[in-house]
Structures are given as C-alpha cells and as structure tokens.
Amino acid sequence: MLSRIVWLILIVLFAGCLDPYAPPTGAADVVILVVDGSLDTSEGSATVALSRGATLSMPDSFPTVGNAFVAVEDALGNIYPLTEESAGNYQATGIPIYSDAQYRLHIITQENEEYYSDAVAPRATPPIDSVTWVTDDEKLTIRVNAHDDTGQTEYYRWIFEETWNYHAATASLYKVVGKSIVDRKPEELTFYCWRTQQSSNIIIASTARLSEDIVSQQPVQFVPVGSQKFQIKYSILVTQRAVSKEEYNYLEQLKKTTESIGGLFDPQPGQVTGNVHRASSDSPLAVGFFGAGNTVSKRIFISPVELPRIFNQIYPRAGCNPADTVCVVRGTYQCALTTADLHEGHILGHSFDNGAGYTLTNVPCSDCRVDGGVLTKPDFWP
After folding, report:
1. The whole model's pTM is what?
2. Virtual torsion, Cα 109, 37, 24, 283, nearest 10 deg
C-alpha cells in the first residue's frame, strides 16, 4: 500500500501549489525506496515490505525490491536477518525482545544502496476494550474502543483482517465423466467459500489532547448494504498497536497526502518524512517508517440474522439462473442438450424429476473460488 502513494509524495516534494508541474515520464525518474516495516514484540517477529516509487504516468506499477539484505539490529550489536518470503516481502521470527532495548532496521539493496532507520524503543499497547458495530440505511460500521489507565499510550494505530463465508450462485452437484453423469465427491463441491482480505487504509487516533487516554467508538471499517460479506457469516479481526508521537505524525501526514488531496479546499499536505534514511548521498532517497511494539487483537463475528433486513438483499451473479437443462429421457422435456451431447466440459447443477434431467451451469456461477475465496474453512471459524 505504501508504494501506491509515492507519486503523490513526489507532487508534495517537487511542486508548489500554484506553479505548473510536469510529472516524471519514465520509470528511471523515480528510484525512491519505499519501506514499510515493524517489529512485533508480542512474538518477536519482524515484517518489512520494500518497493520503488511509481511515476504519475504509471500509477499502477509499483516494482518490488527483491534480493536485498534486510535485518533488525539491537543496541547490543546483535543482527537478526529477515528472509524474503515473497517478492519484496521480508520476515523473521524468534527475535529476542528486551524491554529496555532499542532496535533499528538495516537495509542493503541488490544495487548496494544502504539504509538505516532510527533506533526505536518498543512501546506497550493496552488491550482492546471492545469491537462493536452499528448500521444505518447504507452501511455497517465497525468500531473499536480502548483506553490506557496510565495515560501513556496517547497514539494508536489499527489494522484489520476480514473473513467472510459465502456461496456461489448455484451448486454443481454432478459432473460428466465421458458421457456419464456422476455425483461429485464432497471434496469436489465448490459451492461454499471463505475469503480473507487485509486492511489497506491508515487508521489512527490520538488522545493527546483529551483529559483521559480513552478511544471511544473509533471507526475502522465500513461495509455497504448488499455486500457479499453478509451472505452467510462475517468476521473481523482488529489489531491494535501503540505508536510513538513521531510515527503517528508520519502516518497522519501520509494519510492526509493519500486520502485528502484533490480538491481546492482539501487540507494541503506537507512533505512526508519517516525515520528511514540513506547511509550516503549516493543512494536514492527513502520514504517509510520502522516502528516497534506489542500488538493486541480482538475478533468478532456477525451473522445476517443480527442485521436489518436490508443487509440480506444480496443479488446473485447476473446470468446465473438455471434456465438451460440436459435431458436424460428423450422427447419428454424441451432441453438445450441431451446426454448424447455431453462432454466433460459441461457443468451440471441439480437434477429434476427423479433424474429425468439436469440443470446446466458454468464455472462463474457454480465455483465460489471465482470471487477470490478458498474452499478450506479457517481454523478459527465456528
């Protein structure tokens, strides 16, 4: 997500509010390293994503930075390398955590460009009090509540992971083998799926100007009426982390830059800075932040029966009404096909009249995986 905002950052860095701006036209014009990393002291795990900025002429191209040396270092000189698990995404587990230690990120790219983050001290995160929801005529809003009796947190950040159970427009209970119609085995059924999606927006809040360190009814996600997410059951896992004032200011400026720019009366963003710096002027600039602290999470489930009726109006995929059929008994019904016309590319739905015929369907209508889900139920699912 961080790489998707660099073309906007370039406007802030190089353009004034009134002067004409000619955006860079080639990929070589933008070599900024984009860093998104954190150390989760709850499990001693670190995750870092590296990518390059994109030009205004190529807003959908965000090259990842692979084959880099990425490590977390502590104040004692210990080095904990991260492994590249997928293109540009680095991870490590089992990092020893000391309450009074500081940690920094060290990066050396394949081009021998070197970067360090500022040393950061882990911050303690208070528990989440509750995750609630409320509806109106257009959407369901997920909200989080938290507080810190010590008054030490003041700056909060949340991410979330949504998972929902849904089904295809129609079930395919049969398949064609040769010219024969046979029952699908349970493991071949593709009617029910679960899909998981990560948050992408920046969700932060500060209590620094309040008399008490209390976060009340902070919105974290909105789900519109008619969403597939409420077809069977919906779940959201909200994760909370306390951040430093410096990280909060960085995220706040980044949020303004990415979400508020565009209108004459929108807040005008300033330069987005982070705590990742190049080791020498020979390396390209870096944008990003490395933070450290424990995380806390809370999961809730929502069933359609708990929601107003308007949320249950989920329309099936267009063109998925089972109008066409296959005849087994010739001359009895008006069918699109007979068994003599069948081949293994045909997908069958239900039988009718004790096997006299079968409904015809297709992959988009009968395979829930087309919408991005998987057939395996998650371990946490009830």
Report:
1. 0.85
2. -30
